[in-house]
Specification:
Strand order of the largest sheet: 13-18-19-20
Low-confidence stretches: none
Largest sheet: 4 strands, antiparallel
Shape: elongated
Distance between the termini: 83 Å
């Protein structure tokens, strides 16, 4: 009987060299080959594993999904496709560490919890979890055994916004959601008034109505005072600033495809977005004022998926 002792080597931050020495893909490189007779029995005598307690993150292993919605077991046939909610795709650290290239990032347990929290804050921006204009009520912490103090994983705690069922008109605050925050307007007692010829593009971001027993009524009976004036009104989830390059930003969802635009959505060089909306546009020659209804969803032409965009609802 022979005893063969082998050893792996320490991982180095060099993908071209260290991949074969990953702990999860162990390969031994014997300096001298050995011949094992046929029908021999080979047994592992012992193994020693050294762990340094660090997570090594890169583009390949930093993604995760978080589901918030109706419990799967409560759905018909336990099928998530029957739910109106879907998993949120997120990136640990929100991708900050990997935008400069294929670089590995080593973090300890506490840092890993913080980086995961960054990903949740960006991805799980669900109305029921919004506790402020740009704050998501998700807290990620390291979880330890109370007796042995051994690491057990990560704990996710969701805090829903305190319900607000009433709002006085005098206290309503609107936020500019135009491209680059470029529109100018005044507001008083819930009334918004433009101060230039571009109009305004605003949103009330204080209390999402979905978890506040809220209703929304739009009265546009007086909107025809100036027949040639286009307008757009609707309901939208709250979105954070989205970097669109060149130092510009907008407030469209990160998954939104703004290359597909219907008449009435593009105005003064920016896309107007809503989950559901009514707008008045001028179409035809000569131009005629027309009401259009839009809703946001997946677009498919000839079987080719083109992402999430706004569709004109037809009757």
């Amino acid at each position: 009987m022979s005893l063969v002792v082998t050893s792996n080597i320490a991982t180095e931050d060099d993908p071209s060299f260290s991949n074969v020495f990953k702990p999860f893909s162990y390969q031994n490189r014997l300096l001298n080959t050995m011949r094992i007779p046929p029908m021999s029995e080979i047994a592992l005598q012992s193994a020693k594993i050294n762990k340094n307690g660090l997570f090594i993150l890169d583009r390949a292993n930093s993604g995760f999904c978080h589901y918030f919605g109706t419990p799967i077991e409560d759905l018909h046939d336990d099928d998530i496709e029957n739910s109106t909610t879907q998993p949120f795709r997120a990136v640990i650290g929100a991708g900050e560490a990997f935008r400069a290239g294929d670089k590995k990032n080593e973090v300890n347990i506490d840092d890993m919890a913080n980086e995961t929290n960054k990903g949740i804050d960006q991805a799980a921006f669900h109305p029921s979890l919004i506790t402020g204009e740009t704050t998501t009520g998700m807290d990620v912490t390291a979880l330890y055994d109370g007796t042995s103090a051994s690491f057990k994983g990560f704990k996710f705690v969701a805090t829903q916004q305190t319900a607000k069922t009433t709002r006085n008109a005098a206290d309503i605050v609107f936020t500019d959601i135009s491209k680059n925050d470029s529109y100018t307007f005044t507001q008083a007692a819930g009334v918004v008034t433009t101060t230039d010829t571009r109009g305004f593009y605003v949103q009330n971001r204080e209390y999402p109505i979905s978890q506040n027993a809220g209703t929304c009524t739009f009265n546009f009976s007086d909107a025809n005072a100036i027949a040639a004036t286009p307008w757009f009104v609707g309901l939208s989830r709250i979105n954070e600033k989205r970097d669109i390059g060149g130092g510009d930003f907008d407030y469209l969802p990160t998954y939104f495809d703004d290359t597909v635009a219907s008449t009435g959505l593009m105005i003064q060089g920016q896309m107007r977005y809503a989950d559901i909306a009514v707008c008045r546009v001028r179409v035809g020659n000569p131009a005629v004022a027309t009401l259009k209804v839009f809703q946001t969803g997946s677009k498919s032409d000839a079987g080719l998926q083109q992402g999430i965009c706004i569709h004109h609802v037809r009757w």
